[in-house]
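ok so i was messing around last nite and threw this chain in just to see what happens. nothing serious, just curious
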Amino acid sequence: MVHTVVPTEYLLGAGCDGERCNFTPTSAELVAPNGTTFDNSKSSKLYYLNSVANNRPTGDSHSMKEWHEILGLCNVKDVIKLESVVEGMEISDKSDFSCDVCTMGKMTQSFSRHS
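result:
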């Protein structure tokens, strides 16, 4: 069985054509507009789309920054871990990058009213 990483924005419906995703505490189900269902499994905090064959071209190569964005601003250490367990996932450029959204999120965490 092949596990496919599904980008967060796809599961949440951004840019979809009527697909929906139903989450339970242990799994998720992706439902196509025609009613076809695709089972997903959950391992730790990740959901995997269970598929019989990989129809994508061999090697889905993106830079670390692109994978960070594709995976919904996933932290760099977790993206690196995914590369070794996701078939066809390749990080083409592992150089440091800055993410404005993550930087702004960290700024709000660092302020304290109790100085």
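not much to say yet. The chain has a mean pLDDT of 75.
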